[in-house]
Protein backbone atom coordinates (compact mmCIF):
# COMPACT_ATOMS: atom_id res chain seq x y z
CA UNK A 1 0.00 0.00 0.00
CA UNK A 2 1.40 3.34 -0.99
CA UNK A 3 -0.39 5.38 1.70
CA UNK A 4 -0.76 4.33 5.34
CA UNK A 5 -3.90 2.47 6.36
CA UNK A 6 -6.56 4.74 7.90
CA UNK A 7 -8.79 3.28 10.62
CA UNK A 8 -11.76 5.16 12.11
CA UNK A 9 -14.16 4.05 14.84
CA UNK A 10 -17.55 5.71 15.20
CA UNK A 11 -19.89 5.44 18.20
CA UNK A 12 -17.57 2.87 19.77
CA UNK A 13 -14.23 2.61 21.50
CA UNK A 14 -11.21 1.35 19.62
CA UNK A 15 -9.15 -1.53 20.95
CA UNK A 16 -5.58 -2.63 20.19
CA UNK A 17 -6.81 -6.14 19.33
CA UNK A 18 -9.41 -4.83 16.87
CA UNK A 19 -6.92 -2.47 15.24
CA UNK A 20 -4.39 -5.32 14.93
CA UNK A 21 -7.02 -7.53 13.23
CA UNK A 22 -7.89 -4.73 10.78
CA UNK A 23 -4.21 -4.19 9.94
CA UNK A 24 -3.72 -7.93 9.41
CA UNK A 25 -6.74 -8.18 7.10
CA UNK A 26 -5.76 -5.03 5.17
CA UNK A 27 -2.27 -6.39 4.58
CA UNK A 28 -3.74 -9.63 3.19
CA UNK A 29 -5.70 -7.62 0.59
CA UNK A 30 -2.45 -7.07 -1.29
CA UNK A 31 -2.63 -10.75 -2.31
CA UNK A 32 -5.63 -9.88 -4.47
CA UNK A 33 -4.32 -6.73 -6.14
CA UNK A 34 -0.69 -5.65 -6.53
CA UNK A 35 -1.27 -1.91 -6.72
CA UNK A 36 -3.45 -0.83 -3.79
CA UNK A 37 -2.80 2.87 -3.34
CA UNK A 38 -4.79 3.46 -0.14
CA UNK A 39 -7.26 1.81 2.19
CA UNK A 40 -9.58 3.48 4.68
CA UNK A 41 -11.61 1.38 7.14
CA UNK A 42 -14.54 2.75 9.12
CA UNK A 43 -16.06 0.58 11.85
CA UNK A 44 -19.30 1.93 13.24
CA UNK A 45 -21.68 0.75 15.93
CA UNK A 46 -25.26 1.28 14.86
CA UNK A 47 -26.19 2.63 18.29
CA UNK A 48 -23.40 3.78 20.58
CA UNK A 49 -25.44 3.22 23.74
CA UNK A 50 -26.04 -0.55 23.50
CA UNK A 51 -23.80 -3.03 25.26
CA UNK A 52 -25.52 -6.08 23.76
CA UNK A 53 -27.45 -6.48 20.54
CA UNK A 54 -25.59 -3.66 18.80
CA UNK A 55 -24.99 -4.20 15.08
CA UNK A 56 -21.74 -3.14 13.46
CA UNK A 57 -21.24 -1.64 10.03
CA UNK A 58 -17.87 -1.84 8.31
CA UNK A 59 -16.96 0.32 5.31
CA UNK A 60 -13.78 0.01 3.26
CA UNK A 61 -12.70 2.60 0.72
CA UNK A 62 -9.89 1.19 -1.39
CA UNK A 63 -8.12 3.04 -4.18
CA UNK A 64 -6.37 1.22 -6.99
CA UNK A 65 -5.10 2.87 -10.18
CA UNK A 66 -8.08 4.27 -12.06
CA UNK A 67 -10.71 3.05 -9.63
CA UNK A 68 -12.06 3.54 -6.13
CA UNK A 69 -13.87 0.64 -4.49
CA UNK A 70 -16.42 1.22 -1.75
CA UNK A 71 -17.41 -1.84 0.24
CA UNK A 72 -20.03 -1.56 2.96
CA UNK A 73 -21.19 -4.37 5.19
CA UNK A 74 -24.35 -3.49 7.07
CA UNK A 75 -27.19 -5.93 7.30
CA UNK A 76 -29.76 -4.55 9.75
CA UNK A 77 -31.34 -7.97 10.26
CA UNK A 78 -28.13 -10.01 10.34
CA UNK A 79 -27.50 -10.65 14.01
CA UNK A 80 -24.12 -12.19 13.16
CA UNK A 81 -22.98 -8.56 12.82
CA UNK A 82 -23.49 -8.11 16.55
CA UNK A 83 -19.91 -9.43 16.59
CA UNK A 84 -17.59 -6.78 15.18
CA UNK A 85 -15.12 -9.45 14.06
CA UNK A 86 -17.81 -11.15 11.91
CA UNK A 87 -18.69 -7.79 10.34
CA UNK A 88 -14.96 -7.22 9.63
CA UNK A 89 -14.59 -10.67 8.09
CA UNK A 90 -17.58 -10.15 5.80
CA UNK A 91 -16.37 -6.71 4.66
CA UNK A 92 -12.81 -7.86 3.97
CA UNK A 93 -14.05 -10.98 2.16
CA UNK A 94 -16.17 -8.76 -0.11
CA UNK A 95 -13.17 -6.46 -0.66
CA UNK A 96 -11.02 -9.43 -1.66
CA UNK A 97 -13.61 -10.51 -4.23
CA UNK A 98 -13.84 -6.98 -5.67
CA UNK A 99 -10.05 -6.64 -5.85
CA UNK A 100 -9.78 -10.03 -7.60
CA UNK A 101 -12.40 -8.88 -10.09
CA UNK A 102 -10.50 -5.62 -10.73
CA UNK A 103 -7.31 -7.59 -11.33
CA UNK A 104 -9.06 -9.91 -13.80
CA UNK A 105 -10.46 -6.92 -15.67
CA UNK A 106 -7.04 -5.23 -15.80
CA UNK A 107 -5.47 -8.42 -17.14
CA UNK A 108 -8.26 -8.81 -19.71
CA UNK A 109 -9.42 -12.13 -18.24
CA UNK A 110 -13.11 -11.19 -18.01
CA UNK A 111 -15.33 -12.84 -20.59
CA UNK A 112 -16.80 -10.41 -23.11
CA UNK A 113 -20.34 -11.81 -22.70
CA UNK A 114 -20.62 -11.31 -18.94
CA UNK A 115 -22.53 -8.04 -19.29
CA UNK A 116 -23.31 -5.51 -16.59
CA UNK A 117 -23.51 -6.44 -12.91
CA UNK A 118 -26.76 -7.85 -11.58
CA UNK A 119 -28.44 -7.50 -8.24
CA UNK A 120 -31.81 -7.31 -6.60
CA UNK A 121 -33.69 -4.38 -5.14
CA UNK A 122 -33.64 -4.61 -1.33
CA UNK A 123 -35.21 -1.26 -0.46
CA UNK A 124 -37.30 1.42 -2.12
CA UNK A 125 -38.20 4.86 -0.78
CA UNK A 126 -40.73 6.48 -3.14
CA UNK A 127 -40.84 9.61 -0.93
CA UNK A 128 -37.12 10.20 -1.50
CA UNK A 129 -37.14 8.77 -5.06
CA UNK A 130 -34.37 6.27 -4.30
CA UNK A 131 -33.57 2.71 -3.40
CA UNK A 132 -30.78 0.21 -2.85
CA UNK A 133 -29.59 -2.79 -4.83
CA UNK A 134 -27.81 -5.72 -3.21
CA UNK A 135 -25.16 -7.43 -5.33
CA UNK A 136 -24.59 -11.21 -5.15
CA UNK A 137 -21.65 -10.60 -2.80
CA UNK A 138 -23.82 -8.54 -0.43
CA UNK A 139 -22.70 -5.04 -1.37
CA UNK A 140 -25.38 -2.32 -1.22
CA UNK A 141 -25.58 0.10 -4.16
CA UNK A 142 -27.67 3.30 -3.96
CA UNK A 143 -29.79 4.36 -6.94
CA UNK A 144 -32.08 7.31 -7.70
CA UNK A 145 -35.37 7.31 -9.59
CA UNK A 146 -33.65 9.09 -12.50
CA UNK A 147 -31.19 6.17 -12.84
CA UNK A 148 -33.96 3.71 -13.72
CA UNK A 149 -34.22 3.55 -17.49
CA UNK A 150 -37.54 3.97 -19.23
CA UNK A 151 -39.17 5.59 -16.21
CA UNK A 152 -39.49 2.18 -14.58
CA UNK A 153 -38.93 3.25 -10.97
CA UNK A 154 -42.63 2.90 -10.10
CA UNK A 155 -42.73 -0.66 -11.46
CA UNK A 156 -39.81 -1.83 -9.29
CA UNK A 157 -40.54 -3.88 -6.19
CA UNK A 158 -38.36 -5.14 -3.37
CA UNK A 159 -36.91 -8.37 -4.73
CA UNK A 160 -36.90 -7.24 -8.38
CA UNK A 161 -33.81 -8.38 -10.27
CA UNK A 162 -31.94 -5.59 -12.07
CA UNK A 163 -28.82 -4.99 -14.15
CA UNK A 164 -26.93 -1.80 -13.41
CA UNK A 165 -23.89 0.31 -14.17
CA UNK A 166 -22.04 1.69 -11.19
CA UNK A 167 -19.99 4.81 -10.57
CA UNK A 168 -18.47 6.60 -7.61
CA UNK A 169 -20.80 9.29 -6.26
CA UNK A 170 -20.34 11.91 -3.55
CA UNK A 171 -21.27 9.43 -0.81
CA UNK A 172 -19.87 6.23 -2.28
CA UNK A 173 -20.77 3.74 -4.95
CA UNK A 174 -24.07 4.31 -6.77
CA UNK A 175 -25.89 3.00 -9.81
CA UNK A 176 -25.73 5.38 -12.77
CA UNK A 177 -28.25 3.33 -14.75
CA UNK A 178 -30.63 0.61 -13.64
CA UNK A 179 -32.34 -1.83 -16.04
CA UNK A 180 -35.11 -4.09 -14.72
CA UNK A 181 -33.92 -7.59 -15.65
CA UNK A 182 -37.42 -8.84 -16.37
CA UNK A 183 -38.83 -12.18 -15.43
CA UNK A 184 -36.63 -15.27 -15.51
Automatic annotation (TrEMBL):
GO molecular function ontology, one term from the record: DNA binding
Name of the molecule in the record: Cold-shock protein DNA-binding protein
Domain CSD: 116-180
Domain of life from the UniProt record: Bacteria
Keywords: DNA-binding
Entries under InterPro entries matching the protein: CSP_DNA-bd, NA-bd_OB-fold, RHF-like, RHF/RaiA
Organism annotation: Desulfurivibrio alkaliphilus (strain DSM 19089 / UNIQEM U267 / AHT2)
